[in-house]
Amino acid sequence: MIKTIFILLTSSVVSSLASFLTQMYIAKSFSPNSFGEFNSAISLVMLLTPLISMGVDGYLLKYYMENKGEIKFFNFQSVRYFFLTLAPCYILYIQLSSSYGFLFFIIVLSQAIINIAVAHSQIRFRFKMVSVLLAAQPIARLMGVVLLLIFNFLTPEKIYYLYSLISLCLFFLSLAFLIRINNNDISGAEQEVTLWTFVKNAYPFGLSVFFHLIYFQSDIFILNKLYSSEYAGYYSVAFTILISAYIVPSVIYQKFLLPKVHYINVNEHGKERGLFNNGFKVMFLLGSIGTLFFYGFSRDLIILIFDEQYINAVNFLKILSFCVFFRYLSSNAGVFLVTENLISIKNKYMALCAVLNLVLNIIFIPKYGAYAAALTTVLTEIVLCLLFHYGVNKYKFNIFN
After folding, report:
1. Contact criterion met (CB below 8 Å) for 324 and 366
2. Where are the transmembrane segments (predicted)?
3. How many H helices and E strands in the chain?
């Protein structure tokens, strides 16, 4: 267990470091205005990604454990579902995209396929492959950006083509991996499901990801559209540093414990409460340390990594640092709300937070800019943390019944 977590953590650190360095090089080469526009385009891509094959990756983890590894019909319907969601997602992308053209949609397709490939590796406990799949894109982007820097070609247009080309390559590589890894799934012993039943069971898992991205990524997009590309750039810098703090809970809960929590729920139900309590203690400690660190060293981090031109991002990072504590606690509670039939409860909480975040951002960002975005993000994390802990105690452990 420790070895597996170490492998995943190392991979995530390498991936996050690669993404971090890529953002740093781009930010230093672009003006805050250009960097804000670029990150707004990336935010749109991330918002749309969960809409392709919505929920397939999350549903697979549950389906695989419940059907003892038989997924022939699952795979058949997931292919049909992919094409069903393709056109609506592309139309939405065309309506919302601006300076970055249609090629950026390749990133949406690529990320969707990578997510599905990761899920297929998780259910088989092939965590080394999970690490490779998650690290490939950020490392390739970093290498590409460094080459552009060396030859003095680092412009928004070149980044646009670089990201699109890398995504196209990874799309086909991930697709080839999926075909290869599922070649032996031919028994089809599980009960056959219709497309409608499949969609009905899968999409709630995608909704939780989509709602999360709304309150996690949409503020950069809204800042760019309703306030200022320059301040979207400052906020993006603070946000880039903040998400480095989320590596630990992401690795532990989303990459390692998630498939095991489904297994424990089905086979060792009595162990769940102990796992939750121990996780709360660890996340409380680590979250407190993370918040204090990023609040105390925000100025030093901004100047050291992004130079003086992004000094306006310091106050935004100070505010956002409070998110770390609540995100760590939410990660521990939230993982238990995807077992049994509790995903609908989790989605209600996340939908409420997504709506709260969107409404407050739309109301206050035009007047208060990035300060409104940062404060709204903190408030959203607090509300979500409280809801998750209420939900897991009421519906999972029956504390309030």
Report:
1. no
2. 42-61, 73-94, 100-118, 130-154, 160-181, 193-214, 234-258, 279-298, 310-329, 349-365, 371-392
3. 17, 0
User: How many angstroms separate the Cα of 12 from the Cα of each of 26, 65, 107, 250?
Assistant: 21, 25, 20, 9
Question: Where is pLDDT greater, at 72 or 360?
Answer: 360
Beta-carbon contacts of residue 182 (< 8 Å; ≥ 6 apart): 71, 75, 120
Task: Give the pLDDT band of residue 246 (cuts 50, 70, 90).
Answer: confident
Tell me the C-alpha distance between 341 and 347, whole Å: 11
Q: Which two tokens stand for residue 89?
A: 């997602």
Answer for the pair 314, 302: CB distance below 8 angstroms, yes or no: yes
Q: How far apart are CA 40 and CA 54, in angstroms?
A: 22
CA distance 183 to 327: 39
Q: Which residue has the tokens 């999409």?
A: 203
- Kindly report, residue by residue over 99-122, the tens digit of the pLDDT: 656 778 899 999 999 999 998 888
pLDDT, one tens digit per residue, over 114-170 is 999 998 888 888 888 888 998 999 999 999 999 999 998 888 889 989 999 999 999
Distances (CA, A) of 196 to 81, 165, 347, 349: 9, 34, 20, 25
For the record, the structure tokens of 217 come out as 């990524």
195 touches 81 (CB < 8 A)? yes
Mean of pLDDT over the chain: 86
Distance, in Å, from the CA atom of 185 to the CA atom of 187, rounded to the nearest integer, reads 6
Instruction: Report CA dihedral (290, 296, 300, 305) to the nearest 10 degrees.
Output: 20
Q: Which two tokens stand for residue 52?
A: 């392709």
Determine the length of the chain: 401
Closest residue by Cα to residue 61 from 339, 345, 252? 339
Alpha-carbon span 316 to 297, nearest angstrom: 13
